[in-house]
Amino acid sequence: MIDLNKALAKDRWIGRLASHLDGFEALLDGQGYAKTTVQQKIKLLAGFSAWVERQNVPLSLLGEEDADRFLTELGLRPRRGDAWTIRQLLRYLRDTGGVPVLLPEVDTSAKGKLIDAFGEFLRKERGLSASTLTNYLPIVRGFLDEQFGGNDPDFDRLRVGDVHRFIVRRAQAGSPGRAKLVVTALRSFLRFLQQRGLLATDLAVAVPGIAGWRLAHLPKALPAEQVERLLASCDRRTPAGRRDYAVLMLLARLGLRGGEVSALTLDDLDWDCGEIVVHGKGQRLARLPLPADVGAALVDYLRQDRPACSTRRVFIRIKAPRRSFVSPSTICCIVHRALKRAGLTPAFQGAHLLRHSLATDLLRRSASLVEIGQLLRHSQPNTRQIYAKVDIAALRAIALPWPGVSS
């Protein structure tokens, strides 16, 4: 059995990882971990180093499965986070060259090359984001797998019925939103094939739409007084409260999307001009005026709470490791927690709730749809048409009487 207490002493560090533990300890210190936490992690990793030596595992083959074996053989009940600690070390070793980076296996088949080419087309020519590619490419691969199996694609054999059957199967297995994504991805892929001369017939025009009318419902929004209640729920005496308040102010006052808040960098804040640069959809950049109250919330967070770290992102995790948010879903979590604190239970609780709330409030204060579209940076005019349904009083004034009913 491994004695982790003995392994903690630096003069007793042994094994193939021993020479890397000092550097990793410095990294943990720089990421804001408490000293006791750093000691616990190094104690575990010193034992892991000794185990790697005893098992004669070459560093070139060291991976996550070895961490699982080590924790199983440790003879103690692993603490929460032990597996994560070893993964942290492995990532550090790959970043510093201590172990080789394991590259994903490249699909060199005709199908794999075609999917790669489609991904490059979406990224370079269409300007789509990496997250969009992550949604589109698995759908395309599934379509090719169903149609051609392990064989090279032969698009001369592809018929309209094949496309319809694939969409129907996927539509039955998921939500309407997911079905719409399948339709959009497949239609884009079929147009790509025709553009490249791989498909003689324009099958994209035969791709059916999915019923789900985007203007069928009122936009999900909070009244202005509930938005203020949401903002007031942040305890601005604490670091987490000041950070979350700044995030919510960007959502509520400027109508930013969750991904736009997550991607915000220190370089995007132009304090001299009082403006903010927003990285929007389709890699579009927009400059918006920075309201005084939003700027004050950002200043409070940046001066008091944002730690010094390597990333230029504005918003950083409160707890170690000190780094930017892993995904925009963190912004949705901040909104969800604030709604819970404020005692609000709307049907929709994502970051877009505050974007819709801002647009709805502006319309009720007599802002035009054009002005709302400019603030929210809508690329298509019909995107803002849904907000025309919010002003019920104005709609009553222009509504025609029901047939057979006297006015």
TrEMBL record:
Q: Which Gene3D superfamilies match?
A: 1.10.150.130, Intergrase catalytic core
- Signal peptide segment: none
Reading the lineage from the top rank, the first entry is Bacteria
Where does the record place the Core-binding (CB) domain?
A: 109-194
Q: What are the alphabetically sorted keywords of the record? A: DNA integration, DNA recombination, DNA-binding, Plasmid
Biological process according to GO = DNA integration; DNA recombination
Any one Gene Ontology MF annotation carried by this entry is: DNA binding
Pfam families to which the protein is assigned, alphabetical: Phage_int_SAM_1, Phage_integrase
Domain (Tyr recombinase): give its ranges. 217-400
What this protein is called in its record is Site-specific integrase
This protein's species is Mesorhizobium huakuii
